[in-house]
């Protein structure tokens, strides 16, 4: 958001949080669409989705992260696994 003078206006916390969540949801929807488009091109879409899900979950558990407390790292990895499970289901959308 900008004023007429071009200076940035501060957002309240509620608006900033809503914008952050909307950006994450939008990104997930775009990724889900891309995954579904690609999977429909595979000879066996269910097998493709299942294999992709396994590989992404392996990456979620092993990819290097920025230095952080072990408890936070566990939470981050858990949320990544949750997102992968949401994005890569083993059944086509309705």
What does this structure look like?
This protein has 94 residues and is mainly alpha-helical. It has one domain. It is 69% helix and 0% strand. It has helices at 13-41, 45-62, 70-87. Helix 1 (13-41) packs across helix 2 (45-62) and helix 2 packs antiparallel against helix 3 (70-87). The longest helix has 29 residues, at 13-41.
Write the layout of secondary structure elements.
Layout: H1 13-41, H2 45-62, H3 70-87
Helix pairs in contact: 1-2, 2-3
Q: Briefly, what is this?
A:
The chain is mostly helical and 94 residues long. It is built from three helices and no strands.
Following the backbone from N to C, one meets helices and strands in this order, namely HHH
- Which residues sit in consecutive blocks of at least 5 with pLDDT less than 50? none
What is the overall shape? flat
**Residue-averaged pLDDT:** 87
Strand content: under 5%
Number of helices: 3
Q: What distance lies between the first and last C-alpha atoms, to the nearest angstrom?
A: 37 Å
